[in-house]
């Protein structure tokens, strides 16, 4: 009986692990009629909550100042990054980070809150685990976060022509978990 009680108590504990920010990747893609642009954003910090080796929660802070573009280079890349960091899009001077907080996980289906420009909305995505790495793709509507620039939902499509930008932004991610930081915190039930 004592063994059974110990086993049940052990199952109610979560392991909280830091994320290896140097090995983790967040790749963004935005599309317009003329074609996509893509690059990376850096992870500033991250924690993963696991139970029995599976994702149960987490929090990730993305450093928008460290955004790159990979499909173009030189002056055009600098102009694009400057525009993405401007008030037309991310307004990085005022909102230097974005945050993703995992709220629930059922199998590989994740529900999280994404905060960009101090606006928070729920997002859903799937995640796969391979060793210490979680990977997946998160899609979100940029206009929900106040980024309406050249959106067909807010501007005349005929007037914009090939300058129409899709509302959907794709964020492919690979999060690498470092060693467990604290496996002794009890699972808080609400």
Polypeptide structure, described:
By secondary structure, the protein is mainly β. The chain has one domain: Lipocalin (Beta Barrel). Helix content is 13%, strand content 54%. It contains three helices and nine strands. Strands 1, 2, 3, 4, 5, 6, 7, 8 and 9 form a nine-stranded antiparallel sheet that branches. The chain is globular and about 55 Å long. The two termini are 27 Å apart.
| Low-confidence runs of at least 5 consecutive residues | 1-12, 180-190
CATH topology assignment: Lipocalin
Secondary-structure element series: HEEEEHEEEEHE
The CATH class, by name, is Mainly Beta
Number of strands: 9
Query: How many structural domains can be distinguished in the coordinates?
Result: 1
Q: How much of the polypeptide forms β-strand, as a percent range?
A: over 45%
Averaged pLDDT, please? 87
Helix content: 10-25%
CATH superfamily: Lipid/polyisoprenoid-binding, YceI-like
The structural class is mainly beta
Q: Report the sheet with the most strands, covering strand number, pairing sense and barrel closure.
A: 9 strands, antiparallel
**Which descriptor suits the 3D outline?**
globular
Concise overview:
With 190 residues, this protein is mainly beta. The chain contains 3 helices and 9 strands, in the order αββββαββββαβ.
Brief descriptors of the model:
single chain; 190 residues; mainly beta; Lipocalin; 9-stranded antiparallel beta sheet; 3 helices; disordered N terminus
Write the layout of secondary structure elements.
Layout lengths: L1 H10 L1 E7 L5 E8 L2 E17 L2 E10 L10 H11 L12 E10 L2 E8 L2 E12 L2 E9 L15 H4 L4 E22 L4
Antiparallel strand pairs: 1-3, 1-9, 2-3, 2-9, 3-4, 4-5, 5-6, 6-7, 7-8, 8-9
